[in-house]
User: What shape does this take?
Amino acid sequence: MEKISTPLKDCFILKPRVFSDKRGTFYETYNENTFRATAGIEVNFVQDNQSTSSYGVLRGLHFQDGEMAQAKLVRVIKGKVLDIVVDLRKDSETFGKSYAIELSENNHLQLFVPRGFAHGFVTLSESSVFAYKCDNFYDKSSEGGIIYNDATLDLDWHLPDKDLIISEKDLQLPGFEQAIS
Assistant: This one.
C-alpha cells in the first residue's frame, strides 16, 4: 500500500497494491497492521457504513463535532464519485481549505479523512456504492454540515446544478462561516 499526500494537513490517499489476472482483481481494502505502518498513525475503526446512490446524488458536506468527531477511511466499491473534504480545524494551517479527488471502482484509491473535517461526495457514474470506515460511532446530537454551494468555499462538484439530487436536510445546511462559529 502506498501513502500519497494531499495539500491538506493529515489528509491522505491510500493506493493499494492490486493483483490482476484473467479472473479479475484482488486487493486488500484494509489491514490494521499495514494501515499503521503505511499511514504512520493508529486509528481504531469502530463502524462501517455503506451507501448506494444514483447519478447526481450529492451527500454532504457532513461532520460530527466535539468528542464524537469521526475520522473516516472512504472508498468506492462500484461506480465513480467526486469526493470533497474541507479542513474545519481552526488551529490547522490548512483551515478552510478543501480538497477534491475522484474515487472509483477502477482506481481503487481510498481517502483518509481526519477528525475535524467536513466530508461530501457526488456520484458521477450511473450509480455508486460508497464505503466508509469510521473511528467513532454516529451521534445525531453531534452532527453538523455545510451547504454544498457555500460561496466562501466555492467548491466545484463537476456536475451542473440541474443534475444534482440533494436531500431536503442537506439543502438546509448552513454556510461555512455559520457552521464553524
Observations:
- The mean pLDDT is 96.
- The radius of gyration is 16 Å.
- The longest strand covers residues 47-54.
